[in-house]
Design a protein that fits this description.
Strand content: over 45%
Order of helices and strands: HEEEEEEEEEEEEHEEE
Number of helices: 2
Distance between the termini: 85 Å
Number of domains: 1
Strand order of the largest sheet: 1-11-15-10-9
Structural class: alpha+beta
Helix content: 25-40%
Shape: elongated
Radius of gyration: 29 Å
Largest sheet: 5 strands, mixed
Number of strands: 15
Length: 246
């Protein structure tokens, strides 16, 4: 074999080896890229599933506490990685003389690692990565003569439920409705809540002067909405005796 042929053979072998290394490197890069893409898709799927669960919970809570006649109402909600519980909250109506109505009961809470949905006082607040959002507003309206408050509260002691994938529960609420018409005065609504910002924005938009007291160590504050004076008060309270069924 000639010297030139030997050099040609060596060059061919080096080119072949370089090609093999290049293909192996390309395959490694492709595998890494596919792995990263799979992980990204998995995260997006989980985030979308969690978002869909939170929206479904908000809608179910809103169906349960929405204004309407007395009677039994049902809503089915998924739990996902969240849990369902109740929390004691004070909702009161006051005038110049003091408290005129105390809506005793609880808030209904769905807690997930990065999201929370709270039904309280006839409203539903969705508290997620974007902050507190009033998903279903309370019934509050004020005109030149009348202030209308439609409140709802959870009564009884429904059991707490831990979430799990594909877990759904049925919320069965047996509702009674009471109505009061109170004489003209300066009325205010005080709501103890862990989501005060959503309540403040909503009540401010309802022609109320809004203030907030600090929390008492349990992570809740009280939002106080004072309505213009010389308004008659129409107060409607829905008391929902709740049962949680699998």
């Amino acid at each position: 074999m000639s010297a030139s042929e030997s050099r040609g053979d060596r060059q061919s072998r080096r080119r072949a080896q370089s090609a093999v290394v290049g293909v192996a490197l390309l395959l490694a890069i492709t595998a890494i890229s596919l792995g990263a893409l799979t992980a990204t898709v998995g995260v997006l799927v989980e985030e979308n599933a969690a978002a869909a669960t939170g929206e479904a919970v908000s809608e179910g809570f809103a169906d349960l506490v929405a204004p309407g006649p007395a009677g039994v109402r049902r809503a089915t909600v998924p739990l996902g990685d969240g849990g369902l519980r109740t929390a004691d909250r004070a909702v009161t109506v006051r005038n110049e003389t003091g408290t005129v109505a105390r809506v005793n009961g609880s808030a209904l809470v769905w807690d997930a690692p990065d999201r929370r949905v709270v039904a309280l006082g006839g409203a539903v607040v969705d508290d997620g990565a974007a902050g507190e959002r009033m998903a279903s507003a309370p019934t509050v309206a004020v005109d030149d003569r009348t202030a209308l408050l439609g409140l709802a509260t959870i009564v009884g002691e429904p059991r707490a439920v831990d979430g799990a994938p594909n877990t759904r529960v049925s919320l069965v609420g047996d509702t009674t409705v009471t109505r009061q018409r109170l004489p003209p005065g300066e009325y205010s609504l005080a709501v103890e809540t862990s989501t005060p910002e959503a309540w403040e924005r909503t009540l401010s938009a309802r022609n109320a002067t809004v203030t907030r007291t600090g929390d008492d160590g349990d992570g809740t504050a009280t939002v106080i909405a004072t309505f213009p004076p010389n308004r008659r008060l129409d107060l409607v309270v829905r008391r929902i005796r709740l049962e949680v069924r699998p």
